[in-house]
Amino acid sequence: MANTAQAKKRVRQAEQARQRNVALRSRVRTEYKKVLKAVASGSIEQAQAAYKTAQPVIDSMVNKGILAKNTAARRKSTLIGRIKTLSA
């Protein structure tokens, strides 16, 4: 248990950061799933529109430190690949 004022403050700050990170991570997952759902429906237009909204969200999470750069690139690449399979 934190005894000093500084340690207590760090506990509060860490909890706030944790909750913020949970919310941001959830947002990324939601956008990712929206694209996958649009791909599953078979509509290329819906899938591309969903990707256009998901891509900046994924990129912004890299800047915030929620996702690693390569993780974001891999997820975007996976989504693009699935969208391309619809047009083939």
Question: Can you tag this structure with a few keywords?
Answer:
3 helices; 88 residues; single chain
What does the model show?
The model has no long low-confidence stretch (mean pLDDT 95). The termini are far apart. Helix 1 packs parallel to helix 3 (69-87). It is built from three helices and no strands. With 88 residues, it is mainly alpha-helical. It is elongated.
Q: Which secondary structure elements does this structure contain, and how are they paired or packed?
A:
Blueprint: H1 5-41, H2 44-64, H3 69-87
Strand content: under 5%
State the distance separating the first and last CA atoms: 59 Å
Category from helices, strands and their pairing: mainly alpha
What's the rounded overall pLDDT mean? 95
How many helices does DSSP assign? 3
Largest sheet at a glance? none
In short:
The protein is mainly alpha-helical. It contains 3 helices and no strands.
